[in-house]
Amino acid sequence: MLIPRFNYHRPSTIKEACEIKAEFKNKAMFLAGGTDIIVNLKRGVISPERLISLNGIEELRLHSVDGRNGQTRIASCGTVSGLIREKFMLPYSALITGMESLGSPLIRNMATIGGNLATARPAADISPSLIAYNAKVVLTSASGKREVLMDDFFLGPGKTALNDDEILSEIVLDNPSSYAGSAYIKLGTRKALEISLVNVAAFLTLEKPDGPITGARIVMGAVGPVPLRARSAESILVGEKPGAALFAEAGKAAASKDSSPIDDFRGSAEYRRDMVKILTERALKKAVNDIR
Question: What are the chain's domains?
């Protein structure tokens, strides 16, 4: 199927890209990897008059690790496959696992981390881990920048806190502290090119080796309109020593109190709740094993 005609812009700076978007507003769309936009153009779901490519903007491909501020900054147009190979990503094992779960090798070679977040799919593989790490996104317009917590970025399926003239330019992660571990688990009916039935990311910090849990973040995907924090489960964990019984209790709370799945053609709400319980337990066990 042929895609509809459109005007194509290839700016060289973020400022130029934002100015073009501000001029044409909802008649224009930003294009990064194109793995979603091109498909939707072919399907007739969208028909923008203009596409603004971000691929010629070097600033959107420059990553950095700031030891003084204890942060890692990931440029939004870094490809998923490229980021997986970066050494600075090694402390973020849950994020790496999520990226490895996305699509197929061909899709990962094209898809960008920023584009994946901006599509705001409830079953996405990357966003749960970023929320578990308490990441922020930098939203840039011609007039300046602002930071938004990933917790607050997703507003609904396909909806984000991005204003019409803003680009998601960076993802900001705090470097993990000592005695911290993370994990991501995805449930699907096959291993590649699969939309999650349920996914869970977990991040834990301990006071010391074999000590009590001082921090816990659990994020569930595909069981609500946006990735959901399992706050009831998190509260059960803090102050307690890790263990199978504790993780089972947290899994029950995540399933019964924190998730809100629906029935659809891929699975029932009841099945998804059962899987939230199991995947939460498994993710917490993996996160403890990941602690360094």
Answer: 7-52 (3.30.43.10), 60-174 (3.30.465.10), 180-289 (3.30.390.50)
